[in-house]
Amino acid sequence: MLRLTPVVKNLILINVIVFIGQQVIPDLTGYIGLFDFRSPYFKPYQLFTYMFAHGGFGHIFWNMLFLFFAGPALEEFWGQKKFLFFYMAAGLGAGIFYMIMELFVTHGQQVSIMFGASGAVYGVLTAFGIIFAEMNVRLFFVFNVKAKYVVLFLGTMAIINSVGPFRATEDGVAHLAHLGGIVVALILLIYWRSQGRY
């Protein structure tokens, strides 16, 4: 049975509270979402706050569901402080990666506001799939699939949707942030492994 660990529980709670706040105060998104750094609305703090804002119920539901399933195992494996550091680093790195890559993808044009925990969550999923590679995951509550294959699929889709020939540009999803979360997670995991820290 899944056990909701303290950091994961608090992250989900914060995300839900912020999402409710967005519904009550619509202008809130404009303050905590991440604007392009070339925009006059960009503020450095948005690199942290954007990952707690969401664009709709489906957006927050899936992000929090993935965090609920993958986060507790990593929190118990690493401990609370290390897991929280990893989560925030993946989210922060995803935001920076997104802004840098969009500079090339949009050919210098300023892009719209970006928000969501997806970058951080994709980082968590990547770590889960690597550390618990052989663990069976009940996909859609029906199929048993090894964690490494689930993460491989998600990573492949993130790459295709971000930079591949079928790159999705009009679906309103920040696929580059997903890819950024994966990249940052891999860098951290490789570094920690080289230091014998996991």
Walk me through what this model shows.
With 198 residues, the chain is mainly alpha-helical. It has one domain: Rhomboid-like (Rhomboid-like fold, Up-down Bundle). Helix content is 64%, strand content 4%. The protein has eight helices and two strands. The protein has helices spanning 6-24, 28-32, 46-49, 57-78, 80-105, 118-131, 147-163, 175-194, and strands spanning 136-139, 143-146. Strands 1-2 form a two-stranded antiparallel sheet. A hairpin with a 3-residue loop joins β1 (136-139) and β2. α4 (57-78) crosses α5 (80-105) and α6 (118-131) runs antiparallel to α7. The protein is globular, with a radius of gyration of 16 Å.
CATH superfamily: Rhomboid-like
- What is the CATH architecture annotation? Up-down Bundle
The CATH class designation is Mainly Alpha
> What composes the largest sheet?
2 strands, antiparallel
Question: What is the approximate shape?
Answer: globular
